[in-house]
């Protein structure tokens, strides 16, 4: 069946009047609207064939595939200072039993939790994958069943990692150990990294006390307020595919409100962003000088990490399939982009097979191929489960669809609002 349609603004009310050809699941920061891609303007049927593509545009009200963090497990005191920092530390990589050294291994995002036996008992998460000739991890999957707290960023971070180029390597495996440390034990660089994506609440005061230089007066009341806050031209700065870069700048303020002693305190080592951030702080102006130990973050949204090439869906269709590529969809699939991969601007695709009951319900849904991670196949299956075809006399079997997950239009703002900007600490 051909489920092709496109989302490019706000959802349209009429969905059953277009014969559709092609589309994509696309994510950007525009509004949401269903716009059929019409082969014949007056066609009244939605046809089905081996290619589903959906264009998805993200807004604050759209549906996304998101797993909420687990509720906090209190230690009895409820004191924010007693929270623990949770880091998933990547271990050794082996491909076919041979150790493979990463050229660049990305760590999953750091989380903030509460002391709990649940955390201590669930310490190792393993992933299987292959490495293509360019050194890119693909076919990423985990054999763990159900939801594992704090693990949703493993797949995207592994997809953004890189190995040495060469021949393709298969049978690769890596395990991540969940490390829980107190705020006092956690490296300061990790505390700063958490403030850039504070998904589990703000960093407690004792964490900020470790980040600020000793004797800092910038947060002493009355606090200094910005008269002019300058920003880099982010669109002119190189972005890293699949990874958000950030720079934390430290500075003092003189008696006239001018920043002095401006320097990079912590960084992901995007040198262009570092230099532009220092210049932006130097161009800013403040009240209530002099002050010491002020800090301010700047960040650059990830560049798109494009999906690898995909096979022709027809090549994966069973010879015994009874799906002639015709039919009318009574209810289109909801448009869902895997949230962890959206945050990393990682694109993907999935080729799924399914049957259709005479009353139009899809069944026997299974993923035939998905890249760069099995999560895209799981997302595609979830979408199809919520679709309904028009009733038929005998139903269909062995239908095959390709679903593409594509990020927003080129030229969209580098720091789109849906990219979850970190809060201003000071």
Task: Give an overview in words.
This protein has helices at residues 117-121, 154-159, 188-196, 205-211, 271-282, 339-343, 374-385; strands at 5-7, 25-27, 34-35, 54-55, 84-95, 98-99, 102-104, 111-113, 124-131, 137-141, 162-163, 169-182, 226-228, 245-253, 259-267, 285-286, 291-300, 329-331, 348-356, 362-371, 388-389, 396-407. It is of the alpha+beta class and 426 residues long. It folds into 3 domains: 5-62 and 305-397, TolA/TonB C-terminal domain (2-Layer Sandwich), CATH 3.30.2420.10; 80-200, TonB (TolA/TonB C-terminal domain); 212-302, TonB (TolA/TonB C-terminal domain, 2-Layer Sandwich), CATH 3.30.2420. It is elongated, with a radius of gyration of 24 Å.
Tally of structural domains: 3
Q: State the CATH topology of the largest domain.
A: TolA/TonB C-terminal domain
Mean pLDDT figure = 80
Q: What's the main sheet like?
A: 6 strands, antiparallel
Q: What value does the Rg take, in angstroms?
A: 24 Å
The count of DSSP E runs of length 2 or more, i.e. the number of strands, is 22
CATH top level label of the largest domain: Alpha Beta
The succession of helices and strands, N to C, reads EEEEEEEEHEEHEEHHEEEHEEEHEEHEE
Q: What is the number of helices?
A: 7
Low-confidence runs of at least 5 consecutive residues: 1-23, 28-78, 410-426
Helix vs. strand class: alpha+beta
The portion of residues assigned to helices is 10-25%
The CATH superfamily of the largest domain appears as TonB
The CATH architecture category of the largest domain equals: 2-Layer Sandwich
Shape: elongated
* Percentage of residues in strands: 25-35%
Distance between the termini: 54 Å
């Amino acid at each position: 069946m051909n489920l092709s349609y496109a989302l490019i603004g706000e959802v349209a009310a009429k969905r059953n009047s277009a014969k559709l050809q092609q589309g994509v699941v696309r994510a950007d920061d525009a509004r949401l609207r269903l716009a059929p891609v019409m082969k014949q303007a007056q066609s009244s049927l939605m046809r089905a064939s081996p290619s589903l593509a959906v264009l998805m545009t993200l807004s604050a009200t759209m549906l996304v595939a998101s797993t909420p963090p687990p509720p906090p497990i209190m230690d009895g005191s409820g004191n924010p200072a007693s929270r623990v920092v949770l880091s998933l530390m990547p271990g050794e990589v082996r491909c076919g039993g041979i150790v493979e050294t990463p050229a660049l291994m990305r760590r999953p995002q750091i989380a903030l939790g509460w002391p709990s036996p649940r955390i201590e008992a669930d310490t190792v998460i393993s992933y299987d994958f292959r490495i293509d000739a360019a050194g890119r991890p693909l076919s990423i999957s985990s054999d763990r069943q159900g939801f594992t707290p704090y693990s949703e960023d493993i797949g995207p971070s592994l997809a953004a990692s890189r190995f040495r180029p060469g021949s393709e390597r298969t049978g690769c495996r890596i395990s991540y150990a969940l490390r829980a440390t107190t705020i006092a034990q956690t490296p300061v660089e990790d505390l700063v990294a958490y403030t850039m994506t504070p998904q589990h609440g703000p960093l407690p005061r004792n964490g900020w006390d470790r980040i600020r230089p000793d004797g800092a007066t910038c947060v002493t009341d009355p606090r200094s307020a910005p008269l002019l806050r300058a920003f880099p031209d982010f669109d002119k700065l190189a972005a890293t595919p699949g990874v958000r870069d950030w720079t934390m700048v430290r500075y003092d303020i003189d008696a006239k409100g001018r920043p002095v002693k401006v320097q990079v305190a912590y960084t992901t080592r995007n040198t262009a962003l570092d230099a532009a951030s220092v210049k932006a702080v130097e161009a800013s102006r403040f009240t209530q000088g002099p002050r010491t130990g002020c800090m301010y973050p700047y960040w650059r949204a990830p560049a798109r990490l494009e999906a690898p090439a995909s096979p022709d869906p027809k090549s994966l269709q069973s010879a015994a399939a009874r799906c002639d590529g015709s039919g009318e969809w009574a209810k289109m699939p909801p448009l869902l982009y895997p949230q962890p991969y959206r945050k990393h601007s990682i694109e993907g695709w999935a080729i799924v097979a399914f049957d259709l009951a005479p009353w139009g319900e899809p069944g026997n849904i299974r993923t035939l191929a998905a890249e760069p991670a099995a999560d895209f196949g799981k997302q595609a299956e979830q979408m199809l489960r919520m679709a309904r075809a028009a009733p038929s006399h005998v139903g269909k079997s062995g239908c095959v669809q390709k679903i593409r997950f594509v990020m927003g239009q080129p030229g969209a703002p580098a720091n789109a609002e849906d990219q979850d900007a970190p809060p201003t600490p000071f």
